[in-house]
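Discussion board: Methods & Data

I've been asked by a reviewer to show the raw model output for two of the constructs in my manuscript, not just the figures. I'm not sure how much to include, so I'm pasting the format here to get opinions. Each protein appears as its amino acid sequence followed by a line of discrete structure tokens. Is this the kind of thing reviewers expect to see in a supplement, or should I convert it first? Here is construct A:
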Amino acid sequence: MFKKIFSSIVACFSFWKGFIVADNKGKFLKDNSSSLMLQLIVILATFLSIFILYSALKPAVRGACRVILQSDDDLMSVFRGRVVGVEAKKVIKGTTLREVKSIGSLKANDEVVLKVELPTAKIQDIKFKEGSFVNKGDELIVFEDDYYRSETARLEAQYQLRKAEFERAKRLYDQKAGSQKTYDEAIAQMNEAKAQLDGAKFQLSKTVIKAPFDGIIGIMKVSKGSIVQQHTELVNIVDSSIVKVEFMVAVKYIEDIAVGQDVDIAVDAFKDRVFSGVVDAIDSEVDVKNHSILVRAVIPNQSGVLKHGMFANVKLVTGEKSDAILIDEDALDRDGAIEFVWCIDEKGRAYRKRVLTGAKDANGIEILDGLKEGDIVVVAGQLKLTDGVPTKILNKKEIDGASDNSESDDKNESSSEESNAEDSDNDSEGKKDEQKDEADSDNEEKNSDNAQEQKTKDDEEASPKEEAVQ
């Protein structure tokens, strides 16, 4: 194999040597076309080998250089020639809210456009003040009803006639003096007259438009005295005591959303206010075009500041995580789609660390991967940093103070635990002393009792001897 490589190299040098000394270079290339192709293949293979070798050794060389530079402080100071001042903060553990953000539109609780239901009508009276509150059942618009009243009266008289004819036919039929046909015709004519009368009364009722629910009535689109056709829009009524916000949520969050979850919305008209509500309903199907599902929430609106048709920024709270790794929002930087932070190692050198972020709220940004509690990240001065550059933390006292506070808290906890342990030991020793004193007192009582008994026995033995002497 090595002989083939060596021969190829010799052939390569021979080819280019002949090419240089040849008088007619075109003829030389034509006569040695096969050798030319071989030379091109060799050149391409050489460049490809160099590229592969460079790609393979680049991380190793970079790592070796970093180790060498970090292992020698004096060499790094000479190499860098500068110390960068930065502000930093420690990575902490805290509580973060799981949130889903979206954009939605506000809709009134109830909203209707009042229209003309008669074929043709003339507005006789308008009984409301535009923009005012109306109650359900209030008369709003009255049309001229002379024709409908006269038609109702005519059909009422016709119905009474058909009813009388039916009663007469029924008596004759009951007396066997009338035919079944006459009786059936009388019933049908009476029912027809009754239906026509009901239709006329229904049309008459349409000459007065009443409020279908409580709400704010809008501005009249036509004037009093106007002749309007059927389905002409007259005025809107909106019930905004409760507003509904409808927004889309990505399919990947379906498992996290549920009816009853808290929702916060903000609108451009009231940038400093947040309106809260709850999820009211979730759609039964997913939109196949944008792979999201429709969610509806209800927001109390007793003040009436939220209006139908407004756009809102929606924040849906899906849960809470108590032991999340959090960093300040200023610490996070991006390079395209890559998110990273600048960290400070134990020797005060900066290095870039890629991270995977999660939820974001007022407490900070959650880090799912890449950092741990206690790491120091740069929050100001990132633009001046490069990998391995020495840094000076300008707010070091703040960081040390935070760590001292945590250590003092730990010490206080340990000292309290020790004092509690000492108190318990003292209590146990006190109890032991009390038990010992009780035992000593019991022994003394027993000894005194034994001495008394012994004395009594001695007296009893001495009394017979005295009697005998006497």
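Construct B, same format:
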Amino acid sequence: MSSSLDRRIKFVQREAAEAEAAEAKLYLRHKQDIDAALEHLKKENFLSAKELVNKLGEKKFLDLPYADVLREIESQRVLVEKFREVDNRLNKAYLADETATADLMRTVGELHNINEAASLRNPGSELSREIFSLLKSIARKLDGLVLQAAKKKLRKRTYIIFGVTFGACSLLLLLVIIWVARENAAAREEKAAAREEKAAAFDLRRATNAAPYINTLRMEFVPVKTTPGVLWSRWETRVRDYAAFCLETNRDHKKPSFEQGNDHPVVEVSFEDAQAFCVWLSKKEGRTYRLPTDHEWSCAVGIGAQEAAAASPEAKDMGIKDVYPWGTAWPPPKGSGNFDSSISSDSYGKTSPVGSFSPTADGLYDLSGNVWEWCDSLYKPDATDRVLRGGSWRNSDPTRLLSSYRGLRPSLRYVSFGFRVVLGVGGGG
């Protein structure tokens, strides 16, 4: 008996060992399928991963002894609960996160692997039918996962297409802007050339207050009856005029601490700066621009006939009492010029745009106030000080605003120093 029992025990042990080896072999084979599915998941190949997972669910179970089937029924119930958990997670839109999706796909694969490795296929059982029902539900929801991934890729492609389209439109817009800028530049050059041609052909002797000579910088020049040899700029040299000079000659210009518009008179210019501007403009237009002399300036302001033309500015300084560019009244009436705010004759705190106040009878603006104007005269013989006329926005002293007052300074730059130019008429146009 004992030997027979021993043989039966050894037989059972051998059968168990073979069964375990078969299970291990089956587990390894399906583990390879699961690993392949996971590799597809890492690469976002959701269709390939789903096909492998479904393939695991379609494999046939090995035939097992009846006793083993009974023994594994309880384990099958556990598998059903796990499949239900997977299905519920799918119901809760667990797939929104890619990491969670990969974990869920891994769980599905592991459940298939356990199912086949344990050989629990019993097609007639209620539990087996429920497992297959759950597998169908999971597969259907995995289809939604694939669709979701496809939509995500479609969105990415849409963004790429939008980005490419936007980039192309931006490039096209940039090209249009460049083309418009070139066209505008060409138009400006044509207008400048037309102005230069018109200015060059203008007969300076025909300029009048109503029909002034307009040069290439759009500076207007008019005659003054008491200075027949020159035309006068209507206004003091503007910021825009001096900026064109600095741009073409690569000249630096220190700007004042306060704000100025393009039509304000330029300041922070020395006598040499003003002279250099005249030389540049003369060469540019083929005409003769210069600073007015002290006597010419007196003639323009209306006191030239009352002064000795040959006398030095020093000798004539403050020689005519109580006469101002606006008349004889003090303080200056409102609107007569840009002076220090203590006079309350204007609303400007610093410089004002040229032409903001009433002109003289000859059509000149700002002969009084706004900025001091350099003259091409020495204050006295054998001296270095240059003459400044007209007063500025900083002055409120009656003496300094006299028509006959001469400011004397060495050549330096200051926030109230500017200049006005005249144009030689000569003998012709």
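Answer (T.O., handling editor elsewhere):
This is acceptable in a supplement if you add a one-line summary per construct. For B, something like: Residues 213-424 form a domain with the paralog of FGE (formylglycine-generating enzyme) fold (CATH 3.90.1580.10).
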